[in-house]
Amino acid sequence: MAKPHLSTEETLDLSKAIGYSREKGKVFRENRMKLTREAVGHNYSDNGAADKVPINLMELALNIYLQRLVAQNPQVAISTFYPQLKEIVTRFELAGNRLIEEINLGKTLETAVSAAMFSKGIVKIYLNRTSVEVGGVFHDSGQAAVDAISLDDWFEDMTVDTNENGQFEGNYWYATIDEALKIFPGTTADDFTFRDEQTSSEDKDHQISEGNTSSREEFKRTVKFMDIYLKKQNWIVQAVVSTADGNDFTDPIGKVLKTFEWQGPENGPYRKLGFAELQGNTMPVAPAMHWFDMHDLSNRLFRKLGRQADRQKSWTGVRTGATKDGQTVQSVNDGEIVTLDDPKNIADVKSGGVDQATLAYVLVLKDLFSYFAGNLDMLGGLGAQSETLGQDQLLSASASMRIQKMQKEVTSFTTEVLKDLMWYLWYDPNPKQKDVIKKVPGFESIAIAVPFNPEDREGDYLQYNIKMEPYSMQHQSPESKMQGIRTIMQEMLLPLQPQMQQQGITINFEKLMKTVSKLSNIPELNDIIEYSSPTLNDQPVGQSSQVSPSNKTSTNIRRNVPGRTNQGQSQILQQALLGGKPQQSETASLGVG
Domain segments of the chain: what residues? Predict the structure, then answer.
């Protein structure tokens, strides 16, 4: 097979095609930068939001969604249809989860999901075949790595209607001069173009913190490279970025350093996440694109209300010729009695102040933002949404429909990333024995180290019919674990306790109470409850231990008490601001008389 090679003419055509697509993607990068600046607010840096963001609805929505989508490192559950392979698949699963923890995959996925909220999430899965840990401590030499790729450093074929039809895609990456010389043996500093020699009029993510600068002081000078994946040829092209015309858009390839056949998962090194694909377009529609206009309008009006409040004045007016009475009023102390020639000559005057109709409109916008963002109050647990727990649960299930769709897309994206990551673990070109910790069935407190040998990984990865499922991506607080225990006890264990006892299954209440003490953060509970040996029950078999209740009379009293939901309170306040007269019970729900 001939060695992959691009002719000079092909290299020039590829460079121009990438430059064209980079230029067409500029509007998406600019819009994402605008959204990001609003999310970080005005007080993050000198290059954050241009104006104050007193009610940051974007940041609120982003944090709520990230908690629901990816809050911690995923775990992979691997299964097979063949019983004889279950042992090796179990060790494969343990080794995979160990690798996930080593490379801190959860943080990378969180970055990619956050990027997808603003535009498109992109990750690169590859094997670090060099002796250099480019990218930090999570990029060990000879180990698989997963990098989140910023849209600033991304390019793809923008001339096609689907990603599958694209001819190329790739990313820019950076290395110090020392690292570059090791990665590309036989090169010299003269072969590279340094980042501080390149100029661009386009703002980038990093500039929000670093700020715009015409000169950069680096400890080690940095070289900007590009990896290009040619889909049809299944090639990887690595090149130095050009400085043509001081802009890397028009003709970005400076010098090709290496071209080789891609040896990895068949879909290439990149995985993309978008929450709303648009037919005939490679770029998705991101949730924050819909949120921005209402967020911007809310903050502009709120800033206006702030200026009105700053202009508010309270002062006293005096008729012409009544200066003496005015001076008397000016010097009087609180509670004193003074004599005036004519009190009618003096009047208290107020000017400026918050416009109530505008304030009511801001409250409407806040409620609408929550509505169009999928009921943020319910998703974020920001307050009761109905008058009863049952109604809140129904609303929560309804509000979760949007988040469930997004969770499904994140799960599918994560599954694809895990498949590629596990592919490298299975086909490690330099396999070494890896010890994994395995618990002994039936003795969960006992764990032993078992080997995951190179010979165990013989055979075709796909022929094992391996099924992978990510889980444990949503954070579980101690409170949520307590609620889960409470639900299982009430709905399953207690009702089934007689049948469980017939099968010799019992509930260990000592461990239950110790778990409750730990999750509730009430260690004093262990001092309150004393544990002793169980006593035999002398009650005859079949005789109920329940005491017959005495005759009781119940009286149901119905009271009309207004519910204190966020939306209800907002509507009452809007009505009052617009000149309406809420009922006394409604004003009582606001906590005012």
Answer: 7-168+182-214+243-250+264-314+350-475, 478-521, 564-593
